[in-house]
Amino acid sequence: MALKATIYKAQLQLSDMDRNVYADHNVIIARHPSEADERMMIRLLAFALNVPADDNKGKLDFAKDLWDVDEPALWHKDYTEQILHWIDVGQPDDKRLMKAAGRAEKVSVYSFASSTPVWWKNIETKLTRASNLVVWQIEAAESQALAKLAERSMQLQVTVQDGTVWMSTAVGSVEITPRRLTAGD
């Protein structure tokens, strides 16, 4: 018998001063049995950093990347099913990223392992044609601290200002400063 996803719920209160996005979101996250708290929380961080100000061009949704290799961690599709934004977390290979760059208007990657510099050095030159790709590095210490905030039911306050993110719950608070590794749009 296959293991089933564990459902996590987050009430996300977002104040993104960099993008002028202020909203509350009730988020349901299906956590794959093989997924760690750290990766799940990075997906939640990616949601907060990329959720559009309104749904005029569709919604940003959690996808099934761990169940279906043809899907990212999150994606923003318009109402015609065109992929506007493909968002991966971790260290996807260059072939996956080039394929995503051909399918979506914009591709973002949030890499959070301490091995990110080695991974990036090995694939950076293979991705020069993907002008719509942006890769972000989250320091391992920050992502590990973020993982400690994970609970089955969370109330998260997310504040973004000058490229720095503060995520806090009743359990604690974490400061995250994503570092851009690419020069894409």
Automatic annotation (TrEMBL):
InterPro entries tied to this protein: Restrct_endonuc-II-like, YaeQ, YaeQ_sf
Q: What Gene3D superfamilies does the entry give?
A: Restriction endonuclease-like alpha-beta roll domain
Q: Which Pfam families match?
A: YaeQ
Write down the SUPFAM superfamilies for this protein, in alphabetical order: Restriction endonuclease-like
Q: What is this protein called?
A: YaeQ family protein
Source species, please? Polaromonas aquatica
